[in-house]
Design a protein that fits this description.
The chain is an alpha/beta fold and 500 residues long. It is built from 16 helices and 23 strands. The protein folds into two domains: 272 residues, Aldehyde Dehydrogenase, Chain A, domain 1, CATH 3.40.605; 185 residues, Aldehyde Dehydrogenase, Chain A, domain 2.
């Protein structure tokens, strides 16, 4: 690992660039070269400053008319659209995913900003007139105050965008703690909001590790926490946050299964499995990591998978023609290599081995090629655990009920897909698959911004999903008003419980 002579230390964003005081730093590496491209500050002091600044800015922002809030959102949307290429380049440099994938990530984040621009419609309450004589009752949604988001490395634009525009549109102040592995995009998002006219202090970005996370979870002025990451950390976030009286949504890990029935279009299926298994080098919580091959369909499908895998170009994400970039860090590279080695030791059949790949001119890059295992069964680590790398495992089952039982027994329930031409089987799978998001011949069923994203079982610790309608519910709380104006005919003491 080498250090660029131009590597600078990032600043926090608290009503503008903020030093945060004396603090240690951690390197941010260019995933394709291994070169240090920046340093990120690692201290807790900035958390309290950000929360208190947000608490001061919140009342005026919450009282800002809906039209004025929407104007900020539309301005941010325009600036983000103009900055797509710059944001994507930042993602590719620090994360490693290829530019086309990074641009698609920015677009999916932009779609949430589009949705948040409709805040006036989304925050409307309801009214019932004459619930009793001369009495009306109506409901409203009110912001929570200062809320916070803790986001992972794998989508440094899209996941913050699941949270920030929705929370701000609802009238909250927001503190974002991005991954320390690729935080620069989050700072740029804050800068764009500032340029769009968001009042200073309403959105802050603080850097750091676990200590900063715990400081947010324990801070008395933080009302709610949104989190996306691994299930063990999601449990920690949920338990510590709720212990301190906060509303928490904590999205955890995944082991997404795709069931392939014998009647499936196998060319479409092979395209989908390779795309979903190896896009972003498998560093997606919605990546397909298990394909369940039903009724001997593997005999025809496996050669198609191998053919497509052999054609993938693994390279620096900035290079034309690159299909798959590096992993985010050297430590993660070693972790994924370890899973491939474990799969071999546990008796799985390594059909394609991606460990020996070499990328010319990038000897220090965090590269590993796509790997494919056959003969995999529950109990093997490559089946049971989330690898978060370009490793696709194949499990064979005799029938649809046998395949469904695999999904039911798995502790995760983020996404599930089925490949079939049978409408009846597809409809049955929609109802029976124990997952929060289901795809029918769609391997990565990530919802659009106007639906909400979230899993079941160990993939979601909490109740409400992110963005979409459930996102607005999470960042607001209901209030019901019962109203009567003075009327002489309604006077008199009545100690009974009010009824119609």
């Amino acid at each position: 690992m080498t250090t660029s002579t131009q590597a600078e230390t990032l600043k926090h964003w608290i009503a503008g660039p903020h030093d945060g005081g004396a603090e240690s730093t951690q390197p941010i590496t260019n995933s394709a070269t291994g070169e240090v491209c920046a340093f990120v500050p690692m201290s807790v002091e900035a958390v309290d400053a950000a929360v208190r600044t947000g608490a001061e800015a919140y009342p005026a922002w919450a009282d800002t008319p809906l039209g004025a809030r929407a104007e900020v959102m539309f301005g941010f949307r325009r600036l983000m659209k103009e900055s797509k290429a710059e944001l994507a380049a930042i993602v590719t440099r620090e994360h490693g995913k290829v530019l086309a994938d990074a641009e698609a990530e920015v677009q999916r984040g932009l779609e949430v900003a589009d949705y948040a621009c409709g805040l006036a419609e989304l925050l409307k309450g309801e009214i019932s007139t004459q619930v009793s004589r001369g009495v009306d009752s109506y409901s409203m949604r009110r912001p929570l105050g200062v809320v916070a988001g803790i986001t992972p490395f794998n989508f440094p634009v899209m996941v913050p965008m699941w949270m920030v525009p929705v929370a701000l549109a609802a009238g909250n102040a927001f503190v974002l703690k991005p991954s320390e592995q690729d935080p620069s995009a989050s700072v740029m998002i804050a800068e764009l909001f500032d340029r769009a006219g968001l009042p200073p202090g309403v959105l802050s970005v603080v850097h750091g590790g676990r200590e900063s996370v715990d400081a947010l979870l324990e801070h008395p002025e933080v009302a709610a926490i949104s989190f996306v990451g691994s299930t063990p950390v999601a449990r920690h976030v949920y338990e510590l946050g709720t212990r301190h009286g906060k509303r928490v949504q904590a999205l955890g890990g995944a082991k997404n299964h795709a069931v392939v029935l014998p009647d499936a279009d196998l060319d479409l299926t092979a395209d989908g499995l390779v795309s979903a298994g190896f896009g972003s080098a498998g560093q997606r919580c919605m990546a397909v990591s298990v394909a369940v091959l039903v009724g001997g369909v593997g005999k025809e499908l496996i050669p198609k998978l191998r053919e497509r895998m052999a054609a993938l170009e693994v390279n620096d994400g900035t290079e034309p023609g690159a299909d798959m970039g590096p992993l985010v860090s050297e430590a993660h590279l070693e972790r994924v290599r370890g899973y491939v080695e474990a799969g071999v030791k546990e008796g799985a059949d390594l059909l394609v081995d991606g460990r020996d790949i070499s990328v010319p001119g990038r000897p220090e890059g965090h590269f590993i090629g796509p790997s494919l295992f056959g003969g995999v069964e529950p109990g093997m680590s490559i089946y049971d655990e989330e690898i978060f790398g370009p490793v696709l495992v194949l499990v064979e089952r005799d029938s649809y009920p046998d395949a469904l039982e695999l999904l039911r027994a798995n502790p995760y329930g983020n996404g599930a897909a089925i490949f079939t031409r049978d409408g009846g089987a597809a409809r049955r799978f929609e109802y029976e698959a124990p997952a929060g998001m289901v795809g029918i011949n769609v391997p990565i069923p990530v919802p659009m911004a106007y639906h909400s994203f979230g899993g079941w079982k160990d993939s979601l610790i909490g109740d409400l999903h992110v963005h979409g309608p459930e996102g607005f519910r999470f960042y607001t709380r209901g209030k019901v008003v019962t109203r009567r104006w003075p009327d002489p005919s309604q006077r008199g003491v009545n100690l009974g419980f009010p009824t119609a």
